[in-house]
Every structure is written in structure tokens, then in C-alpha cells.
Amino acid sequence: MSAQPLPIGRVPLGSWPTPLEKASRLGCSLGLGPEDLWIKRDDLSGLGGGGNKVRKLELLCGAALADGADTLVTSGARQSNFARLTAAAGARVGLDVVLVLASSAVDGPLGGNLALDGLFGASIVWAGAVDDEDLDAAARSVTEQLRERGATPVLFPYGGSNVLGARGYVDCGRELLAQAPDLTTVVTALGSGGTMAGLVYALGEGKVLGVNCGAISRPAAKVAELVGGLGGAPVGAERLSIRLDHVGAGYGELTEPVMAALQLAAGTEGIVLDPIYTGRALAGLVSAIDDGQIRPGERTILLHSGGLPGLFGHPTTLARILVRRAEGLSPRP
Fold first, then answer.
1. What is the DSSP letter of 210?
2. In the chain, is it the N or the C terminus that has fewer CB atoms within a 10 Å radius of its CB?
3. What is the pLDDT of residue 8?
């Protein structure tokens, strides 16, 4: 699928290109060869703890500033990575930030991304336990209230996943082609859809495997819609390669394969994944190897889309991480 130049204004927020690192120990532990598995380190993108949303926010903030905005508004889950990075981006470019979160002030831990939201100076509106449509409506209502107060707000979509945001991952796809022109498959977590859509536009649907995280109700349709909006040839949702087998009990819930993936990445490469997105991406990669969808001898890339702060806001995962005791050793008196 050809990707034409996209002349879009942007605000520089990240450090590019992000590294592409060989993961030989992890790959060999999964039955791949020592040169087969690589990790694209978009967790090292720089701003506000890093992550894939920085690529989207460079474009979204560029458009907001061009429109004369003084306030950024977005919505998300309590531990939203996009909310955290929108707060950081607002601090960087000097705009106020209001986050509309689907939770309440007392309905969960105050650490993780939520602590960073406050550190970056964002204001929070608690929308309560609402579904996607009601959360969007709450964000629109907050935006309108700000406008009535004399502010000039701009509302960013959930996860930053509109056509403009997805263009950030067209850039990433091109970056990957320069770093690994022989790549066979890029494995990515599929949350709000923009990251996978940009990669599909740049690389073609046959080279991108998305692992659904349960963040939205119709992930394949959303990715297909965004790819079409980017200007590429229409892609039917049925032609996209998406694994649906790692949602488990729901978006915020830890599964055993994901816990195993977190431990495996940490124990073989010293790389920390999160239980919502990147842990699911690796769990999906493991399943794809087991199924023969990904094979030895092929260049496979796992997109590390960030999310580390969210690990510290996920009590179930933290409770499962045990500190090992050194048997037979004791501190000297």
C-alpha cells in the first residue's frame, strides 16, 4: 500500500527514531532463532514517560495550536496512557489540560498514570462507571462548558485515534522500513486503533498483527475506517490480522498468558511491559508462534508501545510480582 507524503504541521515532542533492539534471549525462549525477534522501543519516545501516544500528540497538538486552542481535553480510563501523555504534552507546549476519566476519585489506586496526570498539572473530571458512548458524551459536555467559560478548548479523541493521530504511526512504519527493510511481521497491541491503522497504511495489512486489548467494541472496523481515512486503498475489516484471544475477562483484567509474558520479557531481556497493552501484545505473539502464524527464520518486530506507569496502577499485577528470597543466605550482623 503506497504511502504518499503527508504535509502536516507538528510540534516536536519526542526523540526519533526510537531504537530497534534485538531480543535474542526472548526470541530463543519462544522457539525463534537468535536473529528473528526485535523490539521497537517506542516506550523510549521521550515525553512524559514515553509511549506510542507521543507520535500522535505531535500532530494533534500541532493542529490544536494552529487553531488557537488554550486547553486540551481528552477522555480515557483511570490509568489511560493517552491521558498521561496529553497532560505532559500540554505542559510542554503551555496549554491547560482537562482529563475526563471513566472512574471516580475513590474507585481505584492513586498511583501509576493517575499520579503523573496530577504531576503534569492536568485537571480531572470524574465521569463515573460509564461506557464508551457516555464517556465521549461527557468529554463533549466538558469541552462545551469550558467554551462557555471563555476558554478555547480542543477535544482529542479517545486514545488520540483519529486520522490525524494515526498519521503518527505512518511515520513509525516508514521508520521501521528504514531500520529493518526485511521485516515480515510487526506485532502491536490494538487499543483504540490508531497505532495499528498507521502501521497498516505504511506497511500493508499482511505485515501487521494486532492483538486486541478490549478497549473498544469494534476494533477491526475502527482500524479499517482509519486506514481508509489516511487515503490508502480501502481495507476490509476481514482482511486485517487481529487476534481476539487475549482480552480475557475484559480490558482492565490480568490474564495468565499476559502475566507469563510480563515475566518472560523481564526475565530474558530486562524489559518491562504493562498488563493492559504490551503484555497482551507479547502474549499474542506467543500464541501466533504456537499457531504457526509467526515462524522461525522471519524478522518479527514487537512494538513496545510503552505503558510502564500503568503497571504501578494495577494492583492485581503488583500482587503477583513476588520478590524472590535468596535461600540459605542472611545479612551479616
1. E
2. C
3. 59
